[in-house]
Description:
Layout lengths: L1 H9 L1 H12 L3 E4 L6 H6 L3 E4 L20 H11 L8 E5 L3 H4 L1 H8 L6 E2 L2 E2 L4 E4 L10 H20 L5 H24 L9 H11 L4 H16 L9 E6 L5 H12 L2 E7 L4 H4 L9 H10 L15 H10 L6 E7 L3 H18 L3 E6 L3 H19 L1
Parallel strand pairs: 1-2, 1-3, 3-6, 7-8, 7-9, 9-10
Antiparallel strand pairs: 4-5
Amino acid sequence: xxxxxxxxxxxxxxxxxxxxxxxxxxxxxxxxxxxxxxxxxxxxxxxxxxxxxxxxxxxxxxxxxxxxxxxxxxxxxxxxxxxxxxxxxxxxxxxxxxxxxxxxxxxxxxxxxxxxxxxxxxxxxxxxxxxxxxxxxxxxxxxxxxxxxxxxxxxxxxxxxxxxxxxxxxxxxxxxxxxxxxxxxxxxxxxxxxxxxxxxxxxxxxxxxxxxxxxxxxxxxxxxxxxxxxxxxxxxxxxxxxxxxxxxxxxxxxxxxxxxxxxxxxxxxxxxxxxxxxxxxxxxxxxxxxxxxxxxxxxxxxxxxxxxxxxxxxxxxxxxxxxxxxxxxxxxxxxxxxxxxxxxxxxxxxxxxxxxxxxxxxxxxxxxxxxxxxxxxxxxxxxxxxx
Length: 387
């Protein structure tokens, strides 16, 4: 069963194009976890998380500055090389400085003409959502709901349908089933005798952002049954939290290196992971209101609450770590990521004070040379903890 997840991760572009051809349906890519993929799903379109690769940058330097986040630069480079030409639409959000400019960069690197009326695109190829940085307080929910209404109208024009409450409710049920299965899966990573490695867990979650949720749910039911009968891993390794990085091929290399050095990632704080899966959508509310509330609850380094001294990021991480018995923390931060770097000093101290564990900071430029350096530093870090 794990081979199916692995195949979707490592051959994702081929698998998505095959799915599109076989099902004769459209595919939209989204750059950030705050994008309302439930609305895309309810429109009958496959939502796909856009990711970079561990391949060298080749075309993006003509348009994007060198000191921008290498994770986003890698995604944009694939767009400029035509790798994402199979997409029928792209959804961007303003979750950091470089992300907020991706609407322009994508149009330049991967131009696509759409029908217009009086010079206005009726269903733009690149859709931009203004997600609030302040996720609590007066007017926030209504502001984001209005953004989602506009987004929904674009999807309705694209598909020539009405996305009514019944459609949204059916989608919410599918996604809630997914969140339930992923929470059941996460419980296995808290066990003292681990049955699943960090890398395998990463690929299981990564694949869920690429394939139809219905198909992933079906595979997860069978996979969880197999996992219950599995023997524990022969080498449990040092239990670690991984904070930072993205859902992509490059971050998967860090999981691999950690395991080669004698560690296991048992919990993470990375883009579109626990912050995204650990809560269900409230199906007792109006479905659009519930989706808005769910996305405002995504814990991201760029967001803040109305509190004068917000500490919700650390409170979220404490919840993630409940029952995981970690022995160390690795911060894996993309070079020039202002959001992760600004929060790092306080998170490091909070983790040391609360859990009394050592931390390791790694920045990376998405190069193979950076991976070699990371290997030696992770190896030394694990040896230090192990004594």
